[in-house]
Design a protein that fits this description.
By secondary structure, the chain is α/β, with parallel strands linked by helices. The chain contains eight helices and eleven strands. Helix 4 links the parallel strand 6 and strand 7.
C-alpha cells in the first residue's frame, strides 16, 4: 500500500535531480552534476515531434536507491508534442486506458533504453521515478510500464508541475499499480491544468476526457511570472522552505547540484 505522507527531503532531492535533467540537455555530451553518493548507470535520449534525438533523462543509483529522471519541455519540437493531446490506447499493459498521443510517442522512443537499463539493476533497491512538467507526464506513462513489465513492481513517484497524461482508466491504473505517489503542483502554475479535463481535438473534432493521477500535493507561490511559477527552480525554492537545514547541507555537499533559487 502506498504511503500517503510526503517525504519533504525526498521531494527536495528529486526536484534537484529534475533540475539536472535540464543541465544534461544543455550539454552536447549529456554531462551534469551527480550528487554524492549516486552514480549514473544510464542516460537516455528520446525524440519529440521533429524526430531529432535529444537528451531526455537519466538513471542513477546509490547503495539503496535507484532514481529515474525525465526532463520537461525545452524545445519547439517538445512544445508541438505537448500540443498533440488526442488520445491513443496505452499499449504496455492490459486495459491501460487512453494516453496523450504526444507524450506517449516521446516515452515510447526511449522505452527500450530505459527498461534495458532497469532490468540490469537490483530490484532490492527502492526505485523512484520523477520528472518536471512534460517529464511528469512521461513519469506517469513510464511508472505503469515499469510496474507491469520489470522487476520493480511498486515504484515511488514524485512529479512536479505535471500535466494530465491520460484518461480516467489510465489514471486509476496508475493509482493502483504504483507505490507512494505524489503529484506536486503550484496552484499558480497553468501547466498542471493542461490538457483540460474535456479536450476536443481540432484535427478529429473528437472530445477526450483527461484525469490527473493521485496524490495531489498543493503548493502556493508566486515567483513573478508565468514561466517562473512553473520553473523547477521555483518549486525547489518553495520546498526548501520546509527543510532549510537539509537544503543547506545538500547544496554544500554537492556544488552545482541544487537549482538556482533566485
Amino acid at each position: 500500500m502506498a504511503n500517503d505522507s510526503l517525504d519533504v527531503r525526498t521531494a527536495i532531492f528529486l526536484a534537484a535531480m529534475c533540475g539536472q535533467s535540464y543541465n544534461q540537455f544543455e550539454h552536447a555530451d549529456g554531462s551534469f552534476t551527480v550528487p554524492t553518493p549516486y552514480e549514473v548507470v544510464a542516460a537516455f535520449k528520446a525524440t519529440s515531434f521533429f524526430g531529432k534525438k535529444e537528451w531526455f533523462g537519466f538513471i542513477a543509483e546509490s547503495d539503496d536507491r535507484v532514481v529515474l529522471v525525465f526532463r520537461g519541455t525545452n524545445t519547439k519540437s517538445d512544445w508541438i508534442s505537448d500540443a498533440i493531446a488526442r488520445q491513443t490506447p496505452y499499449p504496455y499493459t492490459k486495459e491501460g486506458g487512453l494516453a496523450h498521443q504526444g507524450f506517449l510517442d516521446i516515452y515510447s522512443s526511449a522505452r527500450k533504453q530505459i527498461l534495458t537499463a532497469l532490468n540490469k539493476l537490483s530490484a532490492q533497491k527502492a526505485l523512484y521515478i520523477t520528472g518536471h512538467s512534460l517529464g511528469g507526464a512521461l513519469t506517469a506513462l513510464c511508472a505503469v510500464d515499469v510496474a507491469a513489465n520489470t522487476k520493480f513492481k511498486a515504484p515511488a513517484i514524485y512529479t512536479f508541475a505535471s500535466p494530465r497524461a491520460g484518461n480516467p482508466v489510465f489514471a486509476r491504473l496508475f493509482n493502483q499499480k504504483t507505490g507512494s505517489h505524489f503529484r506536486i503542483y503550484n496552484i499558480n502554475d497553468i501547466v498542471p491544468e493542461l490538457p483540460p479535463v474535456l479536450y476536443t481535438s481540432p484535427r478529429t473534432d473528437k472530445t477526450y476526457h483527461y484525469l490527473h493521477v493521485k496524490k495531489a500535493v498543493e503548493l502556493s507561490f508566486q515567483a513573478g511570472s508565468v514561466s517562473a511559477n512553473h520553473a523547477i527552480g521555483s518549486y525547489f525554492a518553495e520546498l526548501a522552505k520546509r527543510s532549510p537545514q537539509y537544503v543547506q547541507q545538500l547544496c554544500l555537499r554537492n556544488p552545482g547540484f541544487c537549482p538556482s533559487m533566485k
